[in-house]
Structure formats: C-alpha cells, structure tokens
Design a protein that fits this description.
Elements: E1 12-17, H1 23-36, E2 39-44, H2 48-54, H3 61-67, E3 70-74, H4 75-79, H5 86-102, E4 108-113, H6 121-139, E5 144-151, H7 152-155, H8 157-164, E6 169-171, E7 179-184, E8 187-194, H9 199-207, E9 215-225, H10 227-242, E10 247-250, H11 254-262, H12 265-268, E11 271-273
Parallel strand pairs: 1-5, 1-6, 2-3, 2-4, 4-5, 8-9, 9-10, 10-11
Antiparallel strand pairs: 7-8
Helix pairs in contact: 5-6, 9-10
Length: about 270
C-alpha cells in the first residue's frame, strides 16, 4: 500500500520507512481514526513532549489530548519494558479497546514506532508471535486498527522483510515482499508467491504461527508456489505432528493439489487438505 489513509476501524498495516520518514503516514492514519470516532494512541521511543511534537500536523491535536481522545506514551511505558510478551500485550490492548468503547469512542487506533523492539533476532521471534495473536484478535471483530512502523536504516532489509511478511497490509519503498503470512480469525492466510528464494523465509514465519498448535492454513490467495514451498509446508506439517498437532491446508487451487500429488507428498507428510 502507498497510503496510510482509507483503512477501516479494524486494520493492521506495517509501515517500513527510511529517509522519507513516517510521520506523514502516522498523522494520516490517526486522522482517519479521529474522523471515525476512535480513540487515538501514539507510541514511540522518545519523551512524551517529543511525541506530542511529532503530531503537530494532526487536526485538533491539543483538544484531543485534553479530552482523552489522543494518548501519547513512550515505548517502554506502553509495552511494560523493552521485551514483547504477546499474551500480556494482547490483554492490555483488549482492555484499552474495551475502555475506549465504554468511553463513547468507536474503537482504538494505534501507531507504534517499534524499531527498538525488534533489533535482536530473538526479539523478532517474539514479535512474530505477537503479530499472529494480534491479527487473529482483530479479525474476530475487535475495533482496533494499528500501524506498526519500522526504520529499515536501523534494521536492514533482511530484518524488515521478516516483519513485513507477518502483516496483512504492508508499505515498502524498495519493492515488495514475496509473500505474507498473517492471522485471519481461526486461520492463518498465506498470500503471494513462494519459491526457492522465499521458502526459507516461509519456514521461519510458519515456526511462529500458532505456537505449535494445530493450524489451518488458507492457501486461496497464493499466486504461485513451487516444490520448495510445498516441501516447506509438508515439513511444517511433520513438525506439528511430532508435537501432537496437525496442519490443514484450506483453499488450495487444483494446480497446488495436483503438484502435491505428483510429488507424492501425501505419502511423505501428515498434511490434510480441506
């Protein structure tokens, strides 16, 4: 996506940026929420006064701050530290969204500049689990919209791709990601293309989807997947089976089903098609 405007009450976008910055996108995203009647939340790794200055372009900023329609929080305060704890974070955002509704707003809309939280690979793994938890929660009907911003100058393109691949909506200035793997209610959706060059990324992304629980993977949006991608799915099904769980593939095209059979993956891997 090229613009942070025009999204609904429940959406989730990853905004990757560099020299062009992200403040224009953050203000546009929050302003949409203001017009829709949502409470606004802005989080970044700076003092509160600096966060308020970031939003100088937001209409009625001062009035929103005074009324509780806009909340700004330093990153450590918002996340309870410098580590991601997916279930605790979900509880906090769920409570904040419920409180926004109780206070007469139509939901909660958050912008988080989260680069410091994902610099380390172990932290990115925890973030990946959080993304899947958040997507599923949003898709179940929570009126929560989020824009997660990451600075590619700090993280590098490889780390940024790991994060972009976990979002249903993405903004990337230097091309596009090959695939996206994100939660949609009880299912996980695979969207895009998987081949030799992206199969390793898919393997890593799948490892964080569902936390070892049984998984329904929706393939209806897959544009292309070669045998490397199919083998990755099969091996993930095998790993789940060893943990006492199962992988179900839903919405696979006739071409994917044919390729799976031609490769005799039915005999090799415990995966169910539905």
């Amino acid at each position: 996506m090229a613009s942070a405007s025009g999204l609904g009450l429940a959406d989730h976008v990853c905004w990757n940026y560099g020299e062009e910055g992200y403040l224009d996108a953050a203000v546009a995203f929050l302003d949409d929420g203001r017009r829709a009647g949502q409470r606004l939340l802005y989080v970044a790794d700076r003092p509160r006064d600096a966060l308020i200055d970031d939003l100088a372009g937001l209409d009625a900023r001062d009035a929103l701050l005074a009324s509780g329609g806009l909340i700004v929080r330093p990153l450590a305060e918002a996340h309870g530290g410098d580590r991601i704890r997916p279930r605790l974070l979900l509880s906090a955002y769920d409570a904040a969204t419920r409180q926004a509704l109780a206070d007469g707003f139509t939901g909660l809309r958050a912008v988080g500049e989260s680069t410091p939280l994902v610099r380390d690979p172990a932290d990115r793994a925890a973030w990946a689990r959080w993304e899947h938890v958040a997507d599923r929660w949003i898709a179940m009907g929570s009126p929560f919209a989020a824009l997660c911003a990451f600075d590619r100058r700090v993280l590098g393109s490889g780390a940024v791709d790991e994060i972009l691949q976990l979002h249903p909506l993405v903004h990337r200035c230097d091309g596009d990601v090959a695939f996206r793997l994100f939660g949609d209610g009880e299912d996980i959706v695979l969207d895009g293309q998987v081949d030799l060059f992206s199969a390793r990324d898919l393997r890593r992304a799948l490892a964080h989807a569902g936390d070892g629980e049984s998984l329904v993977l929706d393939l209806s949006e897959v544009e292309f997947i070669d045998h490397h991608g199919l083998l990755t799915l099969g091996r993930h099904g095998e790993a789940l089976a060893r943990a006492g769980a199962a992988l179900t593939l839903r919405g696979a095209s006739p071409t994917v089903r044919l390729a799976w059979g031609m490769l005799r993956l039915d005999d090799a891997y415990p995966v169910t098609f539905r």
